[in-house]
Amino acid sequence: MLARRHEQDGVTVFEIDEARLDAAKAPELRQTLLDAVDAGAQSFVLDLTRVEFMDSSALGALISTVKRLGPLGALHIAGAAGSVEKLFAITRMDRVFRIFPTRDAAIAAAQA
Amino acid sequence: MSPERHDLIVRRDRNQITPATEWLVALARPALRPDDVMELELAFVEALTNAIVHGAAEEDEQIQIHATTQPGEVSVELVDCAPPIPRQLLDAAGRYSFEFDENDIAALPESGRGLALMVALSDEVSYRTEKGQTRLRLVRRNRAG
C-alpha cells in the first residue's frame, strides 16, 4: 500500500508509506490522489515524512493533483526533507504547494 | 588513487530504478560529499527513468550502467539500444529555467522536468550514438559550499 488515508482533526491526511517515490510508484500515487479529488476532497494533507527520495515523475503526480483541485483547493505538503525538499526548491514547486515542516502544522493550515 | 570502474546490467523495467540507484549511491558515497551524492542520485534516476520509459520498444532490452569513481568525482554512463534523444530536447533541457507563471497553475506542465534536472545536477552531460547504441554519460563532482 502506497499511502494510508485517515482523518485527523477533520482533515484528510494521506501518509505515504514508501521511502522512494519514483517512476515505479508515480502512477499509483497520481491515481490515489486524483481519486480523492474526484471523490470531493478539496483540501488535504500529504505527509511525506517517510519519503527519502522523490523524482520528477512523482512530482508530476502532485502537480496533476493541484491542477485537478483547481483554485479553490489546496494540497498541503508535510515533512518534506533532504532530497525531497531540494526537489521542490530546484523545480520552484515550493511556490505551488504549501509546504510545512510537520503534519500538525499542515493540518492547522488546512483547517484555516 | 586510480579510478575504479563498476558495471551493472538492468532490465528495462521501472522496478529496476531503485536497486540500480542504491547500487550507484553506495559506490558514490566514498567519493562525494553527502549533498553531492544526493544530487547525483536525482540526476541518475532521471536519466535511467528516461532510458526505461522512453527507450526501446522491446521490454526485455537491457541497459548497461558503467560507473567510474575517484575521490571527488563520479561518472556514470547508460548504454542501451534506444532511439537517440532528439538533440533539440537535450539542448532545451540545458536552457530550462523551471520558471512558470504562478498565476496560471492550470498551464503548469505535469512532466518534462526530468532531462532538465539531469542537466542541472550534473557537471558534465555527453550523449552519443555509436554502432546502434546510445551512450549517455553524466559526471558529478563535489561542488563548493
TrEMBL record, chain A:
GO terms for molecular function: anti-sigma factor antagonist activity. Residues 18-110 form the STAS domain. Pfam families: STAS. It comes from the Bacteria. Belongs to the anti-sigma-factor antagonist family. PANTHER family: ANTI-SIGMA FACTOR ANTAGONIST TM_1081-RELATED, ANTI-SIGMA FACTOR ANTAGONIST TM_1081-RELATED-RELATED. This is Anti-sigma factor antagonist.
TrEMBL record, chain B:
One of its GO terms (molecular function) is ATP binding. Pfam families: HATPase_c_2. Residues 14-139 form the Histidine kinase/HSP90-like ATPase domain. The keyword Kinase applies. It comes from Fuscibacter oryzae. This is ATP-binding protein. Keywords: ATP-binding, Kinase, Nucleotide-binding, Serine/threonine-protein kinase, Transferase. It comes from the Bacteria. InterPro entries: Anti-sigma-factor_SerPK, HATPase_C_sf, HATPase_dom. The keyword Translocase does not apply.
